[in-house]
Amino acid sequence: SWISFNNINYVPAPVLSIMSQLLKSVRDAIHLGKSTVHILNEDVTLHADSACFATLDAAIKEFTAQFRMISLVKPDLKLMVEVLLLSQGFISAGELARKVIILYDMCRQIIGTNTPLVNETSHLS
């Protein structure tokens, strides 16, 4: 399971403190190889391949210590579409991917970009 906290620096300090404690409990349990962690009177199943992401404007030292810093980059949609098409057996996947991306861009211009995915990634351009 993955979770992403967006603009976490706007969360009030008391809530951040509680979140930090809960994340530390989860992280410690994963590092110890446990399959569950006890949180708020409930046993929660853990998955070793889980991840937690957060976006923030300013660094909050106490909280960011729980995270590994990563960079976000704009995805190469053409490459993603080309790989998907190749995996489905399309021979001219490169040319078809280029045309699909042109269609996608045209639809985005005509229809708009009022979707959660586009709104969240628009700052990556």
Describe this structure in words.
Pfam families: AAA_6 (PF12774). It comes from Paralvinella palmiformis. The chain has 125 residues and is of the alpha+beta class. It has helices at 13-31, 61-64, 77-87, 93-111, 116-121; strands at residues 2-5, 36-39, 42-45, 51-54. The protein has a two-stranded parallel ribbon. It is elongated, with a radius of gyration of 20 Å. 2% of the residues are buried.
Q: In percent, how much strand structure appears in the residues?
A: 5-15%
CATH class of the largest domain: Alpha Beta
The biggest beta sheet reads: 2 strands, parallel
The strand order across the widest sheet is 1-4
Radius of gyration based on Cα positions: 20 Å
Would you tell me the overall average pLDDT?
A: 82
Secondary structure tally, helices: 5
